[in-house]
């Protein structure tokens, strides 16, 4: 909803200011120039991206209307799950996790954490590396390197829509100039008109530059920036899992390993040491 609110503020500020200076809204109504700019932007987007990037962008845009799901409650569940799994592995041996890792949907441990279980990519990332740890054939350095590569791949893939929209946003002011030039050409081709009518045609032509800049910096480029913020937030669960598992592999107790994971979270979602400690104690009591 913040996206829609921001758009309302942009439109109210620009057109409200125009009205306050005595501008006539009829002069800004240029559907042909809007068609030229928007059509050129969409065409450039299609030409500059493959089908995977186009589908990812169209699929990701509706999600921007909702807030981020990566809040403190999700991270508390994630760290509690990590603590329970690592405690079981420390007490009964890592092989005791094999059933939970191979079939998390039917695992009594995962069933206690529905927010995590409902996020398939996080569950897949966690179970994949627990499976490697259970196998016992890889050292911590190899697992850390593999985790880094996977997180980098995920980030690169998730940022494709942001890069695509950013390039379109950069191109829209130029398309606005193209529309304005076309309007000026039309005006000059009618040089025999009275000065008042000629001035009106020139004014209409200049609307193209205005629309291109407004669409770029008021609408499209902010979406690209917002996607980048969402991608940065969405990588934090993976980094939390990575740091926690590596701490456990290096010999730290599950409660301390979870504390390592807590430290990589953003301050706005990171639970305090006391909150996490109390939560872990509650998990222990269960």
Helix content: over 70%
Distance between the termini: 39 Å
Shape: elongated
Main β-sheet description: none
Mean pLDDT: 88
> H/E order of the elements?
HHHHHHHHHHHHH
The chain-level structural class is: mainly alpha
Task: List low-confidence stretches.
Answer: none
Oligomeric state of shown chains:
single chain
Number of helical regions: 13
Gyration radius (Cα, Å) is 27 Å
The overall strand count is 0
Identify the notable features of this structure and list them briefly.
286 residues, mainly alpha, 13 helices
Give an account of the 3D structure.
- The chain is mainly α and 286 residues long.
- The chain has a domain at 76-137 and 235-285.
- It is 76% helix and 0% strand.
- The protein contains 13 helices and no strands.
- The protein has helices spanning 2-20, 31-47, 51-60, 72-92, 98-102, 114-117, 120-135, 140-158, 160-188, 195-234, 236-249, 254-263, 273-285.
- The chain starts with a helix and ends with a helix.
- The mean pLDDT is 88.
Write the layout of secondary structure elements.
Elements: H1 2-20, H2 31-47, H3 51-60, H4 72-92, H5 98-102, H6 114-117, H7 120-135, H8 140-158, H9 160-188, H10 195-234, H11 236-249, H12 254-263, H13 273-285
Helix pairs in contact: 2-9, 3-9, 4-11, 4-12, 4-13, 7-11, 8-11, 9-10, 11-12
């Amino acid at each position: 909803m913040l996206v829609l609110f921001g758009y309302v503020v942009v439109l109210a500020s620009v057109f409200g200011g125009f009205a306050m200076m005595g501008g006539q809204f009829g002069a800004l109504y240029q559907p042909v120039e809007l068609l030229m700019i928007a059509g050129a932007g969409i065409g450039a987007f299609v030409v500059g991206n493959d089908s995977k990037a186009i589908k990812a962008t169209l699929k990701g845009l509706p999600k921007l209307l909702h807030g981020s799901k990566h809040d403190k409650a999700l991270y508390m569940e994630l760290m509690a799950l990590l603590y329970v799994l690592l405690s079981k592995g420390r007490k009964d041996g890592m092989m005791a996790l094999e059933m939970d890792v191979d079939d998390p949907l039917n695992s009594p441990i995962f069933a206690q954490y529905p927010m995590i279980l409902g996020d398939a990519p996080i569950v897949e990332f966690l179970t994949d590396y627990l499976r490697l740890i259970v196998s016992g054939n890889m050292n911590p350095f190899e697992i850390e390197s593999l985790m880094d590569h996977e997180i980098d791949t995920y980030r690169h893939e998730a940022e494709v829509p942001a890069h695509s929209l950013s390039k379109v946003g950069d191109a829209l002011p130029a398309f606005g100039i193209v529309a304005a030039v076309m309007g000026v050409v039309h005006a000059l081709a009618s040089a025999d008109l009275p000065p008042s009518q000629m001035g009106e045609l020139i004014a209409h032509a200049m609307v193209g530059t205005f629309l291109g800049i407004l669409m770029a910096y008021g609408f499209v480029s902010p979406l690209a920036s917002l996607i980048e913020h969402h991608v940065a937030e969405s990588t934090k669960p993976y980094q939390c899992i990575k740091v926690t598992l590596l701490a456990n592999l290096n010999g730290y107790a599950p409660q301390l390993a979870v504390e390592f994971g807590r430290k990589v979270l953003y301050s706005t979602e990171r639970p305090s040491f006391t909150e996490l400690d109390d939560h872990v104690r509650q998990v222990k009591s269960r």
